[in-house]
Amino acid sequence: MGDPLESVDLGPMVSKEARLKVHKQVKSSEKKGARILLGGKISKGIGAFYPVTVLSEVKPGMEVFDDEVFGPVFSIIKAKNEVEALKLANNSSYGLGASIFSENIEKARKIAIEQLNVGMCYVNDFVKSDPELPFGGIKKSGFGRELSLNGFLEFVNVKTIVVNKI
Question: To the nearest whole number, what is the mean pLDDT of the chain?
Fold first, then answer.
């Protein structure tokens, strides 16, 4: 962790308040049974740094499952099978993006198109912002898209005129 103008792997969060909110989400989830495997402690020193944190045994009802976490926190959620994994993935009031990693590209593509309730889905890649692709979510993760032609059209006023002959 360090100054993002230097060569570092992790810069600070947007504010100390944001860092505290992430920390509270982690600690609340830990109290409900999540295990901290890495990180989870506010670093000493100046700045709004929060360490990369990995939690296991995460389940619905924990803040790191139910809420968006805007910090370097990764939750490991176990599923018995594909059906349960999809149910867990869709069991959210948010829906920004998802990633599927699979050797079976066609199956993963079908799941991305037909079964995941998100605004963006990447197969064998991580969700990221690309100016050529529409970026945005569904549910509480947003309405509409930014970037690409779709994002550009969000700023266009369309005028409809209907003229009927009398």
Answer: 90
Identify which of 85, 79, 78, 86 has the alpha carbon closest to the alpha carbon of residue 115. 86
| Cβ pair 146, 136 in contact under 8 A | yes
Q: Which residue has the tokens 């912002």?
A: 129
85 and 161 share a domain? yes
Q: How far apart are CA 120 and CA 106, in angstroms?
A: 17
Length of the chain counted residue by residue? 166
Please report the pLDDT score of residue 113 as a whole number: 94
Q: What is the pLDDT of residue 137?
A: 86
- Here the CATH number for the domain that contains residue 47 is 3.40.309.10
Whether this model's pTM surpasses 0.85: no
Biggest CA–CA distance in the chain, Å, is 77
Domain end call among 78, 97, 114: 78
Residues 6+ apart with CB under 8 A from 137: 94, 95, 96, 97, 118, 119, 120
Note down the domain range covering 37. Answer: 1-78
- What is d(CA 117, CA 86) in angstroms, rounded to the nearest whole number? 9
Residue 157's identity, in one-letter code, is N
87/24 same-domain check = no
Strand partners, 123: 100
Torsion angle defined by CA atoms of residues 47, 7, 21 and 14, in that order, rounded to the nearest 10 degrees: 70
